[in-house]
Amino acid sequence: MTGQQLNNWQDVQAEVLKRIQTRFWKPGDLIPNEAELANEFGCARTTVNRALRSVAESGLLDRRRKAGTRVALNPVRKATLAIPILRREIEAKNQLYSHALLALETKPPPVEIGARMKLDGNQDCLHLTSLHMADGQAYASEDRWINQTIVPGIIEADFATISANEWLVANAPFTHGDIAFSAVRADREISNQFSAPEGSALFSIERTTWNHGNAITFVQMIFHPGYRMHTTI
Amino acid sequence: MTGQQLNNWQDVQAEVLKRIQTRFWKPGDLIPNEAELANEFGCARTTVNRALRSVAESGLLDRRRKAGTRVALNPVRKATLAIPILRREIEAKNQLYSHALLALETKPPPVEIGARMKLDGNQDCLHLTSLHMADGQAYASEDRWINQTIVPGIIEADFATISANEWLVANAPFTHGDIAFSAVRADREISNQFSAPEGSALFSIERTTWNHGNAITFVQMIFHPGYRMHTTI
DNA sequence: CAGTGGTCTAGACCACAAG
DNA sequence: TTGTGGTCTAGACCACTGG
Predict the structure, then answer these.
(1) pLDDT at residue number B7
(2) I need a labelling partner for A221 at 20 to 30 A (CA). Which of A27, A155, B104, B212 fits?
């Protein structure tokens, strides 16, 4: 060991971050390999590996076998953002959550939505619109299509008492999903729901969830004026 | 070993995910401890630990010492989204990146921005507005405040040739940042930049970056109409 | 108190890719 | 070909926390 004693991977990680932030290791630099750092820090190579892997996952290091580990030239910082169930997001603010089912029908979705769900042909879907409220104020408007052919039991669900999202979370496991964030203009219907001027700029989240190759549901949530989604890096 | 042989942590992870998705382990269930799973899978406990830790990070498992590991009741799925440098985002689409500096001045920021940057008093900041373009089309409009007291060399920077973001990435390391996403209405100036109707709904990203306790910069990026930010879970 | 996950260690072998 | 990170193992000790 030639340097200070670092006993756990968090300490090693902190030292590595410090060297990057202070430009002791500059962007593009090749840093010592795991064995050398383990020797310098007086710990096992496994510990160094754990620390470096963690820093690399955050985007600050590029690691490649044989080529070694370099400080990232263009650090694409990765923000992790939690996609909460709306009810919990609202309750976390100590507000009362409620929701109202506005419409429920069975029909084939518009072509662009059918395409996103990779449905073949004019397949019937369950279509529902509902409003989520915090302390009685409109919080988010939901427009959802559910692929009823692959969700057993969906017909019996009572979406007046449980929100579609919560029912699906409990009954239709998914393997992965796509999410898109954007800004949309409030049309007449939406602006009425929020008691906001027509043409207001509203934050939108669209999500398609899948069970292996099959789309379970497509949902667009449009949030009240002024809504902000936060995260940190 | 009582079950099938799983030789690496990815296989163990896949098996664990399968058991969650198929409801073999149901939400709220306590699953076997690491030693039991290691025995069942015929691998070391370390390997099981690596797999379970990874699943827990995605939000599907709750792990607590002594209490054991449970399938999450309300899985708050975590989406990791990459915050790219704009130039790279544009070049990744095989478009030509360019940018124009629209204004540059030195003055104290508005109070709400000064508060976000935790500046004390009416401290002068470098304020610049610029436009990022893809193939000559307006892509995003940037409004940035830089705390010049803690960024050495900022005076010499030539923001006509290098974008402020790239200069800062190269010269002002940060330890962390806050990000907020929202929707904003295009005012007259912004709508002119995008040749879009006034009142268009535009996607906005605001970011403050810090070096320990000191704000380096606050920036608001407003994107062209129709911009979407994607991720997966 | 005792059971669980969290971590460290030393050694080993392997997969990948640069030269 | 060979140096690098990626991973597994067995065993050990520790930290936290539920009962």
Answers:
(1) 86
(2) A155
**Helix, strand, coil % over all residues of chain A, rounded to 5:** 25, 35, 35
What is the CA angle A107-A185-B217, rounded to 5? 130
How far apart are alpha carbons A72 and A20 in whole angstroms?
10
Å from B180 to nearest chain A CA? 4
Chain B 37-76 residues whose Cβ is under 7 Å from strand C: 45-46, 49, 52-53, 56, 63-69
Nearest chain A Cα distance for residue B18, angstroms: 9
Chain A residue with the nearest C-alpha to that of B18: A175
Measuring CA to CA, which residue among B77, B99, B70, B103 is closest to residue B86?
B99
Q: How far is the CA of B178 from the C1' of C8 (A)?
A: 34
pTM greater than the 0.85 cutoff? yes
CA B113, C1' D19: Å apart? 51
Unique residue bearing structure tokens 């099938």? B4
Query: Cα dist. A47→A34, A63, A212, B204 in Å?
Result: 9, 16, 36, 40
Retrieve residue A110's tokens: 């518009």
Strand C: list positions under 7 Å from protein Cβ: 2-12, 15-18
pLDDT (tens digit per residue) in B52-85: 999 999 889 999 999 999 999 877 778 888 777 8
Instruction: Give the span between the Cα atoms of A13 and B210, in whole angstroms.
Output: 19
Q: How far apart are CA A65 and CA A71, in angstroms?
A: 15
Percent of chain A with pLDDT over 90: 67
Report pLDDT for B115.
92
Distance CA A158, CA A155 (A): 8
The predicted-structure confidence for B180-230, as pLDDT tens digits, reads as follows: 999 999 999 999 999 999 999 999 999 999 998 899 999 999 999 999 999
pLDDT value, residue B83: 77
Instruction: Say which of B17, B179, B230 has its CB closest to residue A180.
Output: B230
Name the closest residue on chain B to residue A225, using Cα atoms. Answer: B183
Mean pLDDT score, A151-157? 81
Q: How far is the CA of B63 from the C1' of D17 (A)?
A: 12
N residues, chain B: 233
One DSSP character per residue, B36-56 reads HHHHHHTS-HHHHHHHHHHHH
Specify which residue's alpha carbon is closest to the C1' of nucleotide D3.
A66
Map tokens 């605001």 to a residue: B206
